[in-house]
Amino acid sequence: MALAALMTYKCALVDVPFGGAKGGIQLDRREYSESELERITRRYTYELIQKNYIGPGIDVPAPDFGTGETEMTWILDTYLTMAPDKLNATACVTGKPIEQNGIHGRRGATGRGAVFGLQEVCSFAEDMKPLGLSPGLHGKNVIVQGFGNVGYHAAKFLMEADARIIGIIERDGGIYDPQGFDIEKVAMYREETGSIQGYPTAKIIENPNDGLELECDILVPAALENQLTAENAPRIKAAIVAEAANGPTTPGADAILQERGIMIIPDTFLNAGGVTVSYFEWLRNLSHVQFGRLGKRFEDQTQHAMRRTIEKATGYTFSDDERGLIHGADEEDLVNSGLQDTMINAYQEMRETRTQHRDKNNAIDYRTAAFINAIHRIAKSYMQLGIFP
Fold first, then answer.
1. Where along this sequence does the record place binding of NAD(+) (predicted)?
2. Contact assessment for residue 53 and residue 308, using Cβ atoms and an 8 Å cutoff
């Protein structure tokens, strides 16, 4: 129920017109074979169909903890089997593989959205100064908890934004290196060995909870809920807690961290990249055409014609790198642009709300601002629609 409500507020906050819901199956997938997981997923989907809980215009599932493109494909195929005549059937689920009408950019959307959000948060010098930080992500020391889909992509895109990933925490322990990690190399090591433990040059963190308490600029909980509690909150040494996971901070921990002056970027905002790009995928499936397909070639030709005109008029020859920047937008370009715009707009609205609603002459915290904006948008919708019958 809590996660379902959180999805409602999250969608409202980033202006995604989904009502918000959650569902799942409680099991340890490591104890089941792939064929057993497939049968369980298909049966679950069948029950959703029978109860009219799934469909392009009803509820639209997406990947979350323990699931991915494979499970979404099983859901899609089961739905197509049960409703082969529905024109928009592929919009019944998102997070699908590209080959099954998925969308480019969905796999890393939650992590990328978190980084887009952090870039905007850290861009205001006046907000960073009280934390003892300079504006921007460049050179920031970051610890990421969780190295699954969200944690890996958040770490990868943070590294590409010139942040330094000094710690990675998994369920069986963690690794630490003040010089920072190459995220791709860590991912390859885990692929080869099954764990990040033992990564060359890294200091081993035997107790994963200890990794949360190491000194850093930004702590990114990107695993499960209730990781920051009233018990460990007094020992958190980060200047910013960036909630890339759903509900990683308990209310008790939230109060302690706020009292200590630690900035908390709430999950309702920072975790919204996944549902935002799921919305884009849903739109793509309803339109039955890949984003950018109609205009990319035309834009390419127009851009290159303009380049040639400039070169001819000025005598300047663009380098290969400069030419590579001049091209029409493909689907992933458009998806990332839409996601970035969504995160920037949502944060700016939160920041404005913080200053409008003051608590004892101080701006309210970001979580409260996020809930104010989300609830206001939901309430306004109910008031405009009225009650019928």
1. 110, 149
2. no
